[in-house]
Amino acid sequence: MNQRQITPIEQLEATILDVFHVVLGADAGVTTTINFFDLGSDSLLLAQIYNQLEKLYPAQITLTNMFAYPTISRLAKFIADQEGMELEAYPVPLDYMQNTGQVLQDHRYEFRIEKDRFNEIRDLSRIAGCTPVEWLWSLFAYLLTEIGNQPQLTVYTLIYRMNHISSISLDVQEVQDFNELFVIAKQALHTADEQPGHHIQDLVRTGMKSQHVAIRPLFYEADYVSGGRVALEELFDVICEIQNEKRNMLVTMYCKPRMNTIQWNLFFRTYDQMLAKVFESLRPAAERG
């Protein structure tokens, strides 16, 4: 009888488990699924484990990662992901990517969602079964599919876990109206709860290669980023930042300066104007509700 072939991730788990056994002892009760912080190990032993792992997987793991992925199975998956961390990019027309020698516009665009309008978003998002931030994400993602003329894309999203970016895939091919969009987007967004995501600093350390005719879009909530936006602007090409203020929301949109800022400013303004159009089309249903 042929023995089952061990998968690469299982081999990785076994290697990490060996490190724990060497440092803690084979009788320490370590398994691939137990939280190793529940074993009562002191910080010195943890440092020894980290030093051994760092030798095996240089530049692929930090001490912070061990706290973020506190089981051997999760840590093994994280290390495996580092080897292929290059993030997927979304193709857009060439005129969005290249400056044409025209007078450049600012690569940053801001608008404020005032209290009355925010209340409308809150009411409409409640009807759609999502949060206001998820509602805004849906429209941002949808508008990107319009300019790329492709119904499927990945939007890198940071609205659930501190400093952790999730890859959210959306397919709007069957979408007929905004209500359907919000349903599909909500389903896509909630897959983020099933993935640990990538820590910002891990992406910074790995680095991202620029794409000539494709973008990596990011949508994030400022409250979930501890180090400011500088690192994010280095990693991602087009960004929508949501900042919660006392009675309103500030939306900041950004593209890399090397790109066609005229085209992207038009995109940013279209997103701003699109919100008003959605309010008008959905307000009757909200008033009936």
Count of beta strands = 9
Quick one: biggest sheet? 7 strands, mixed
The figure for the number of domains is 2
Question: Which CATH first-tier class of the largest domain would you pick?
Answer: Alpha Beta
Report the C-alpha radius of gyration, rounded: 22 Å
For the record, what is the CATH homologous superfamily label of the largest domain?
Answer: Nonribosomal peptide synthetase, condensation domain
Give the mean pLDDT: 84
Helix content: 40-55%
- Stated plainly, the CATH topology of the largest domain is called Chloramphenicol Acetyltransferase
- What overall form do the CA principal axes indicate? elongated
Order the strands across the largest sheet as they lie in space.
Answer: 2-9-8-7-3-4-5
Can you summarize this structure?
With 289 residues, the protein is of the alpha+beta class.
Name a few traits of the molecule.
single chain, 289 residues, alpha+beta, Non-ribosomal Peptide Synthetase Peptidyl Carrier Protein, Chain A, Chloramphenicol Acetyltransferase, 2 domains, seven-stranded mixed beta sheet, two-stranded antiparallel ribbon, 10 helices, 46% helix, 17% strand, elongated, Acyl carrier protein, phosphopantetheine, PKS_PP-bd
